[in-house]
């Protein structure tokens, strides 16, 4: 390559960005939604909306589990909190077969936190579906999907770095905006969204790779430890194993409330989880975990401060201040990147900030794809676009407006499908996939400006429909959510309205777009067919 | 690939691009893998810290290797520039760290 460094980097940026760009758009959009995974799941379970967090929750959960699963292997009680005001119960039944025990995923139930009444939320994968989609897609063998997503992520990292090198005047370009000028405008938008949140883009891409380091880059662990990554993680994050066998039958303490109160007093934070190993056996163990204001390098799963009690007597066995104190460099560094990616530390304001960065990142990926088409359309100077250009334009449409439309359909299906439907959660996902397929067929059939207008119109209508359907089918719609001061529920409907408004605005801009020069009528018709303004 | 993009390759033939892609994807990964392993063995810090440092660097090394593969004057330089340090790293791994 005789070209200068900048030219070769521009080439690399263009092609590494395009090749897996559609997948990256989908990863960015669904991944952004995952910052509000819990809120989305909660919105998708309106049967839980009337539960109000209460002091009595631990006692109600205790009674319920003693009645339904007194001799389980273990219990987990997730106490109500702002993001999930119902009580979530999980337990794993004990079977004589050890293999079966390890495989079993366990049972779940939801309780009203004030009345203790068993709630029956409609079957739904909720926000978890979109979250999982962003790193393992759907319907593809998990390992293949993860590799594919990681390859795309690596492409992203290459695109980010080569994109930065490409731009000699990166900060000057950042303040350059030339709206309504086709290719130039898309370039400006791509630069602005890229530079605006560049540290975020880099962080989210790099940490995404690190999360899968066991799969992607196990070689350091493999040469340094006899048993590879297992040895590494056992050393860095030592964990205690559950006692292997049930003891003799012996009742648990009657009242869990004093133990909860003691834990909350010990750490000055509300209790979040109550775990019980071998309930109603003489080796029963109760562990109560609190939330904690932790440093970003501290937190990991199960790393919050906890007290452990003997199950039969309630005697304090162990005080665990949580991770942090003994963690070395390796653990802290690993935690840092994982926590940054998952925004595990985030309070609501930070969560919204990360969500906005995710939106900006999605916009960066989208504008990059649109720029590719716009540039090549402009270079045609009115000639009919070839197959490649039409294909890319169509795939862009399906991956941007198509995916967003399918997400609206997923939420609408949650409200419209009958609660008693067999395999209901799969039907929600099928609705999502069918809607996406429909937009793909439409996009490949009409890969031009009018196609975009049609999809944008559909997009606006679908997102507007979600809060309207919610109003018609539940009593926890926008108006009551505002009246109850339930921020998450209200925000969901407001974001839907915002999406509808955004799609409507885009429709208006594309519909009103006039080519800069006045070409001959026939040429203009051809240009329109090329989807110039897209 | 359209004609357009090929012209943008600045007269670089298709074969050159294929060759660079090959060394970028597989050579870059090999370089990242052996560097990670060598650092895990040779860094004079705690074993876990050496492992995490090597692994943190691996994705950056891979990225730089890919950029390098597409920025050298000839594809051959890309091959040599990536494979030579890979062999050095492999030798270090084979030696198995400071006794």
UniProtKB/TrEMBL annotation, chain B:
Record's keyword terms, sorted: Membrane, Transmembrane, Transmembrane helix
Pfam families in the cross-refs: DUF3649 (PF12365)
TM ranges: 21-44, 50-71, 78-97
InterPro entries, per database record: DUF3649
The keyword Membrane is annotated on this UniProt entry: yes
Name of the protein: DUF3649 domain-containing protein
Biological source species: Alloalcanivorax profundimaris
């Amino acid at each position: 390559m005789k070209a200068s460094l900048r030219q070769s980097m521009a080439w690399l940026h263009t092609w590494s960005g395009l090749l897996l760009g559609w997948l990256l758009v989908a990863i960015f959009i669904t991944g952004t939604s995952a910052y509000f995974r819990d809120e989305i799941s909660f919105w998708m379970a309106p049967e839980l909306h009337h539960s109000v967090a209460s002091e009595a929750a631990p006692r109600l959960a205790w009674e319920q589990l003693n009645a339904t699963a007194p001799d389980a292997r273990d219990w987990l009680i997730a106490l109500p909190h702002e993001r999930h005001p119902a009580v979530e119960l999980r337990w794993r039944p004990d079977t004589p077969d050890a293999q079966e025990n390890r495989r079993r995923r366990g049972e779940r139930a939801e309780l009203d936190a004030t009345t203790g009444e068993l709630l029956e939320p409609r079957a739904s994968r909720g926000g978890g579906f979109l979250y999982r989609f962003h790193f393992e897609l759907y319907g593809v063998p998990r390992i293949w999907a993860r590799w594919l997503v990681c390859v795309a992520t690596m492409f992203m990292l290459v695109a980010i770095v080569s994109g930065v090198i490409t731009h000699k005047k990166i900060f000057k370009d950042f303040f350059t905006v030339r709206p309504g000028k086709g290719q130039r405008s898309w370039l400006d938008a791509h630069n602005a969204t890229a530079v605006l949140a560049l540290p975020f883009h880099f962080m989210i891409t790099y940490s995404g790779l690190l999360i899968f380091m066991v799969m992607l880059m196990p070689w350091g662990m493999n040469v340094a430890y006899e048993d590879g990554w297992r040895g590494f993680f056992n050393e860095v994050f030592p964990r205690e194993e559950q006692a292997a066998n049930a003891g003799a039958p012996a009742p648990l303490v009657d009242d869990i409330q004093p133990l909860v109160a003691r834990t909350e007093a010990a750490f000055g934070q509300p209790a979040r989880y109550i775990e019980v190993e071998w309930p109603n056996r003489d080796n029963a163990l109760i562990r109560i975990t609190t939330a904690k204001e932790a440093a970003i390098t501290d937190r990991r799963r199960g790393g919050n401060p906890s007290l452990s009690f003997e199950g039969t007597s309630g005697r304090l066995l162990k005080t665990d201040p949580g991770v942090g104190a003994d963690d070395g460099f390796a653990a802290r560094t690993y935690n840092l990147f994982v926590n940054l990616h998952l925004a595990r530390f985030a309070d609501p304001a930070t969560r919204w900030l990360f969500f906005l960065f995710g939106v900006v990142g999605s916009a960066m990926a989208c504008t990059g794809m649109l720029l590719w088409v716009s540039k090549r359309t402009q270079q045609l100077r009115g000639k009919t676009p070839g197959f490649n250009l039409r294909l890319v334009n169509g795939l862009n449409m399906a991956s941007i407006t198509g995916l967003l439309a399918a997400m609206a359909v997923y939420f609408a299906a949650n409200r419209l499908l009958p609660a008693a439907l067999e395999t209901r959660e799969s039907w929600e996902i099928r609705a999502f996939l069918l809607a996406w397929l429909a937009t793909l067929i439409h996009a490949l059939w009409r890969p031009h400006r009018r196609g975009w207008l049609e999809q944008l119109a559909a997009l606006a209508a679908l997102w507007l429909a979600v809060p309207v359907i919610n109003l018609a089918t539940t009593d926890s719609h926008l108006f009551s959510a505002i009246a109850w001061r339930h921020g998450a529920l209200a925000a969901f409907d407001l974001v839907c309205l915002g999406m509808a408004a955004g799609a409507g605005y885009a429709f208006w801009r594309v519909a009103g777009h006039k080519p800069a020069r006045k070409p001959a009528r026939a040429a203009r018709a051809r240009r329109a067919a090329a989807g110039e303004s897209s | 690939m359209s004609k357009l993009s090929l012209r943008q390759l600045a007269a670089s033939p298709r074969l050159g691009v294929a060759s660079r892609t090959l060394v970028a994807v597989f050579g870059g990964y090999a370089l990242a893998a052996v560097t990670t392993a060598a650092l895990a063995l040779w860094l004079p810090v705690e074993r876990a810290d050496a492992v995490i440092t090597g692994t943190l660097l691996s994705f950056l090394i891979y990225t730089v290797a890919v950029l390098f593969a597409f920025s050298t004057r000839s594809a051959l330089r890309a091959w040599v520039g990536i494979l030579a340090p890979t062999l050095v790293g492999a030798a270090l791994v084979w030696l198995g760290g400071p006794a």
